[in-house]
Amino acid sequence: MSETIQLTQELIRRDSVTPEDKGCQIMIADRLAPYGFHAEHMCFDDVDNLWLRRGNKGPVLAFAGHTDVVPTGPVERWSQPPFEANIIDGMMYGRGTADMKGSIAAFITACERFVKKHPDHQGSIAFLITSDEEGPAVNGTVKVVETLQSRGEHIDWCLVGEPSSTDKVGDIVKNGRRGSLNGRLSIKGKQGHIAYPHLAENPIHLLSPALTELCSIEWDQGNEDFPPTSFQVSNINSGTGATNVIPGTAEVVFNFRYSTEVTHEELKQRVHAILDKHALKYELNWELSGQPFRTASGQLLEAVQQAISDVTGYQTTLSTSGGTSDGRFIAPTGTQVIELGPLNATIHQIDECVATADLDTLSDIYERLLSYLLVD
What we know:
The protein is an alpha+beta fold. It is 31% helix and 26% strand. The chain has nine helices and 19 strands. It has helices at residues 3-12, 24-32, 97-117, 141-150, 203-216, 264-277, 299-312, 327-330, 356-374; strands at 38-44, 47-54, 60-66, 87-88, 91-93, 124-130, 157-160, 172-174, 176-177, 179-188, 192-193, 230-238, 245-246, 249-258, 282-290, 293-294, 317-319, 336-339, 353-355. The strands form six sheets. A six-stranded mixed sheet has the order 1-2-6-3-7-18, with helices on both faces. Helix 7 packs across helix 9. The chain starts with a helix and ends with a helix.
């Protein structure tokens, strides 16, 4: 059994449900200390963060990831215990195998092999690890990046180990992500008896025409790098629980996943204009989860494409689809950011799993990437 597989199992067996870390970061720091990595533990409220760095000069290549995992769901529905990392027919089962402790293990073993071969490599190698990616993401990577910026420490290249692959490891590399804008809308009506609607104002009825318009709008057509902006409602809530009462309010939660063709401020303005056009009485609170980013062709992208080709024999495809990642906090500093990890088919699901062979392949790709960027 390879070092990468053994290390993945060690990490999975720590039930670090967000925002818990359960000692994963201490284990990582202790393991890499003999290889010259200096550890800095940054704790903000209940979140553990780890900044590891080997070297004191640029360029800086950072591996970014998270030790927290989502809850397991009903444990009895798992075919294997979610925190035992059992291997069956070449597949390792466990919460976090794909998202994303397997990538972290591959980061580590790739760096260990690389440093043994190239102890005097160029630049610096860093790790940015948090336990707040699956949660609110307010005391994790964003705080570490702010700390680094405050002391003039810059990351040139960053590889985020999010599970990017679709059919085979390395077939997809994320070179950007759409922006994410959340809205919480409260429509005000007037509660009353359902038999006397003329004495009430039904907020559900008032909302419906505006919501229909919001759902039917083409916000933009996207571009060659991003799909069109998407508006989706995730929750609608109203009513008192009684069948004979017109409710006084209706609550709607919605999200934009938006391209670079529009800004979050433009989206806000257009939504308010529609709500105002329909003369609604409302309150609307906004939360910007992340702005869109894209890493154009450059050293990092070229190196990872070549590394994947060298190790696997096939060409990768670039994509900006999917959800958000902590890359959204790193890219605005001017860092080239990409995402490369295992298959995403089972992430957040019952029986999350990863092929052990894929983790070994991933570690080889990461090591080859290091060679392309930090060796003459």
